[in-house]
Amino acid sequence: MNSRKILLLSRPKHRINVAMLDDHPIVALGVATFLHGFADFDVTATVTAAEDLMTELASKSYDVAIVDYYLPEDRVDGAAFVRRLRTAFPSLSIVVLSAARAVDAECICHRAGANAFLEKATPLPLIAEAIRNTVAWPRKFFAVRDGEVVPLVPIPREDTLSSAELEILRYIAEGFSVSQTAQRLRRSKKTVSTHKRSAMRKLQVADDLGLALYLREKFRS
């Protein structure tokens, strides 16, 4: 049997049809090029805007959508866009591939209906493995732990917060400063600041920008 016949016989009966959304075309091209090297993947669409992806998914049958988390040029992104995809295409596997840290977005994406969350620094072979897993086990959620793709249920970080910390974060999410929050709660500025720092430590948020991103998703979801 010649090599061409062996290659044809080794091809899976059903190729995984993939559409990819990333506002950085180079990222999309890199992932798509890698996946094209496997017989079981068919990346037939790479787009840079959310509406273009919705149009593409509606025009033909896809198994998987690989989507970025942050889409600054689009009207909707993050968990809101994942929820929109899940509602519009219930059987679609949604793999979020993002520059966002897993600790910041993993649980939010799981709640929104994604099938996997991967950081953009994830090695390409693991991305391929995660895509296959979401198709094979669509009811599970996959992420990377210790260099392996594993099924898991992310634990919400806010479950570790005290009631006082949650109360303060709600005010901060509404745009109040530490001083304004202290006045409204009739507590000292030092007490509020201490609770805020404690909450940030538990949430593994390094700075105010990271906290703002977390609160944006937490309180708009």
Automatic annotation (TrEMBL):
Record's protein name: DNA-binding response regulator
Q: Which CDD domains match?
A: LuxR_C_like, REC_NarL-like
Tell me the domain of life: Bacteria
SMART domains, per this entry?
Answer: HTH_LUXR (SM00421), REC (SM00448)
GO MF term (any one): DNA binding
Q: Which residues carry this modification: 4-aspartylphosphate?
A: 68
Response regulatory domain segment(s): 17-135
Keywords, comma-separated and alphabetical: DNA-binding, Phosphoprotein
- Locate the HTH luxR-type domain: which residues? 154-219
Q: Does the keyword Phosphoprotein apply?
A: yes
The upper taxonomy is: Bacteria, Pseudomonadati, Pseudomonadota, Betaproteobacteria, Burkholderiales
SUPFAM superfamilies with a match to the protein in the record: C-terminal effector domain of the bipartite response regulators, CheY-like
Q: Name one Pfam family in it.
A: Response_reg
Which BP terms in the Gene Ontology apply to this protein? phosphorelay signal transduction system; regulation of DNA-templated transcription
